[in-house]
Predict the structure.
Amino acid sequence: MTVDLNILCDLVIKVAEEELLPRFTQVKRSEKADGSVITEADLVTQQRLQDALQTRWPDIDFLGEEMPAEEQSALLSSGKPLWCLDPLDGTSNFSAGIPHFAVSLALLKGGEVELGIVYDPMRRECFTAQRGQGGWLNGKKIIKQTADVKLRQSTALIDFKRLPSVLSARLVTEKPYASQRSFGSVALDWCWLAMGRCHVYLHGRSNIWDYAAGHLIFQEVGGYSTTLEGDALFVNALIPRAAVGALDESMFDEWVKWLGVAVIRKI
């Protein structure tokens, strides 16, 4: 089983530009049982990519965000190679006409992420990584560039609504950074962090299809991450994960110390 990353990128880009862009600002949103947003674009993009991936690589199983949880769990526990797709990461942005969303696709093998693609069709930015081969943007290797700033001077990328209320309140009242952003796409969060567009990251709850590809890209650029419990972020299961990250090691150490995280594994 060999996956050509260039062919895979072309496939993701083609589907995103043919299915997502024509529907941008043209679709109605609805809610799933858990209250999250879904649109026609999510469903159509997932089905088209599933069909294309299984035609070209029939030995690789497929898990998409818009599948029943029981089926997702069975696929993750099977031990077989597995595509893990979020067809539209940032659906709330997409449905509201905010141009910040992406397709996120990861290949899982042996319970680990082997490759990842995050494609932002609005900016035509295709982020990619294969384990051990670095992170790339539009075919050019991403060179790790860290800012010479302290935590108090940093720009933080934080999703407040999923954090413990006590921690959210402390972040507001004791603000350890200079400025804060929240853009609404976990996959792009990790890619932007890898590019140095922000300095530290905090998210209280993301699923495997949200972070698998983007987090690999971030890791391959040389970033550091953990959960709020101090564990390695990735887990091959349907367990929502809190995420802490920074591209620079000293910034990461300062950030987790402020958060009170006793880091068990810093990767």
Notes: The radius of gyration is 18 Å. The domain at 151-259 is CATH 3.40.190.80 (D-Maltodextrin-Binding Protein; domain 2). The chain is about 35% helix and 25% strand.
